[in-house]
Structure formats: C-alpha cells, structure tokens
Design goal:
Blueprint (H helix, E strand, L loop, with lengths): L10 E8 L5 E2 H10 L13 H20 L3 E8 L3 E8 L5 H9 L9 E8 L4 E2 L3 E2 L2 H19 E2 L1 H14 L3 E2 L6 E5 L3 H11 L5 E8 L3 H25 L10 H16 L5 H28 L4 H24 L1
Length: 329
C-alpha cells in the first residue's frame, strides 16, 4: 500500500503483518535501533532465561509429538530457589504383542516411560545435570538446548509485535479497529513514524502497510469517534488495574464514576511500594492521554472539551490518592 501522506491529508491508516517464524538476533535489533535513533522504550525486553527454558521444553514436546506420532509431554516435577526440574515422558510404539492383543480385543496398557530429566539452574541461567533415560531423550535434550539458547538471543514474533504496539502508543496513534491491528497515525507524527517503520521493516518477516487519509469531514468524524473509544478503553484498562469493574454503559462519565469507586476501594488496601509505583505509572498514562487529546483537537479542529473535562476529573481523583499516600510516607 501507499506510504505517502496526501498533501492535504490528516494522517495515515497503518496495518502490519508478521511472519510466525520470525527469529531476529537481538544484537541486530539493537544495532539497527541505534543506527535509526529509535527510542529504547520501543524495544521490548528479550525473553527471560526461565521463560525461554519453559517455552523451549513445551515447543520441543509438541514438535516431537508431531514428528513421531507418539505423544510426548513435559512435566515440571520440582522447583526451588535454584533449580527447576522437568521430566519428559513419551508414548512408546506398540510392540507386535500389543497389536495382537488389541486385535484380539484384550486389554493392554500403553506405556509412557520417562525419557529425559532436565535440571535448569535458575541462578546460573543454564541447563545442568540432566539425565537421559531412553535414547530418544538424547535427541530431545539436544533440541531443548538449541531452542533455549536461540530464544535467549533472538526476538520472535512476540517481541516484534510488542515493539510495534509500543510504537503505536509512543507516536500518538489511535485504534481504528477495536481488536487492534489497524491504527491511525496523525500527519504531525508521520516523519517519526516513518523512521520507525524503516527500522522495523529492515527485518525479514515484518511488513507495514499504510494508506493516506484525506482531509474530509467524514474522515475527521471517524477519527474523532475512534479517539473517544480509545479514551474509554484506556479508562477501562485503568479500572481493571485497580481491581474494579465497569458497571452499566460505556459512556465516559459513567466510566469516570466507576474509576472513582475503584480508586476508593484500592485506597482501602494496604499501600505497598509496588502499589504506589502502579499509581504513579497510572498518572503518567493519564497525562499522556490528555496530551494526545490536545494534539487531536488541533488535528481535527474539534471541540473535545467533554473528553477533557471527564479525563481531568479522573486524573484529579488519582492525584488526590497519590498525594494522600505521599503524605502518609
């Protein structure tokens, strides 16, 4: 699709597609990010070692099942502060006697013996002191080690998607489709956005598609409606973070009321450093939302005072709680 904004356009519609088998060395991503002056905040953290080990085990078990036709499962059997122990079990092929028993209608019990035990050292961040019980387990161990090492040093589709979603937020885009995947980038941020797309599209398996949006009343109304939905969704997310619920309709003023109730219930809980930090992060997101609304006022030449006033009410309630917590410390 076209990647040029119309001379009188208000922005671009952006879509993206990712290959499921993306595997990009982290060092390549860091090098390209530095060369293109990409803000570090747009680079998601790599998979942590423990998560990489668990995912490698699961992936290998699934692949072995598909390859051999005999179910292979992995079970976590023990974990302490240092070690995570996983055992692989695999359905052994039927013997001739098993087949004859089945034909004769006799009962027989399929066997699922352990084929491998893997100990993962969480402190050292490595696989250590594993034991192979069956010869097929040797192949499984090798596969787990290779996938584990690869996952620690590469970005997959998960990290690439997280980077794009972070960029959507960073560059002031709004969703045009509720479940994501289609966003609007205002023309005031196109230059920065284009720099990011040049970076992310340099990796195989990533494609960004754009379509320019003309400066028409219909298009402006569409973007304005999407902005209203985006603000509401943001407030709903904050209510959920507080452990609250959204009651009734999705009108912004009612969401603000639900937010106030959620804040009151949250303030009744014991305030920890983590909870305090969460409130500070929430305040930063409110400020970012209001900055974004201000930018769209100018872009759309629209009266967004109803959004402004309601979001400000919610922000003031939040600030009151933060000030109270700060005063108690």
């Amino acid at each position: 699709m076209a990647k040029q904004i119309l001379p009188n356009g208000i922005g671009n519609i952006v879509m993206y597609s990712l290959s499921t088998d993306i595997s990009v060395p982290i060092q390549d991503v860091l090098a390209q990010a530095s060369a293109n002056n990409i803000p570090p905040v747009l680079l998601p953290p790599p998979q942590n070692d423990k998560g990489a080990f668990q995912k490698a085990c699961t992936e290998v078990a699934v692949n072995m099942t598909a390859k051999t036709g005999n179910p292979c499962v992995r079970k976590m059997i023990a974990e302490d502060n240092q070690y995570l122990t996983v055992v692989f079990e695999m359905r052994m092929p039927d013997t001739d006697d098993d087949v004859q028993s089945a034909i004769a209608g006799d009962d027989y019990v399929p066997t699922y013996p352990p084929i491998l035990r893997i100990n993962y050292d969480k402190v050292a961040g490595k696989i250590d002191n594993s034991r192979v019980y069956k010869e097929v387990g040797r192949s499984v161990l090798g596969r787990v080690e290779r996938r584990f090492n690869a996952m620690k040093t590469t970005y997959t589709i998960k990290q690439m998607r997280a980077s794009i979603q972070s960029a959507f937020d960073y560059y002031g885009t709004i969703k045009l489709r509720h479940n994501g995947g289609v966003n609007f980038v205002p023309h005031t941020r196109i230059k920065e956005w284009r720099n990011y797309t040049n970076f992310i599209e340099s990796f195989e398996g990533v494609q960004i598609m754009e379509l320019s949006v003309g400066n028409t009343a219909h298009n402006k109304n569409t973007v304005r409606d999407a902005l209203s939905v985006s603000v509401n969704d943001t407030l709903e997310d904050e209510i959920k973070r507080l452990g609250g619920k959204c009651n009734g309709s999705k009108e912004l003023n009612e969401l603000v009321a639900d937010f106030g109730k959620a804040l009151k219930d949250y303030s009744a809980q014991k305030m920890t450093a983590t909870k305090h930090q969460m409130l500070e992060g929430m305040l930063a997101r409110f400020k970012a939302t209001m900055t974004n609304v201000d930018a769209y006022k100018v872009l759309l030449n629209a009266d967004l005072s109803s959004i402004d006033s309601q979001v400000d009410i919610a922000k003031q309630q939040l600030m009151a709680l933060i000030n109270k917590v700060n005063g108690e410390e």
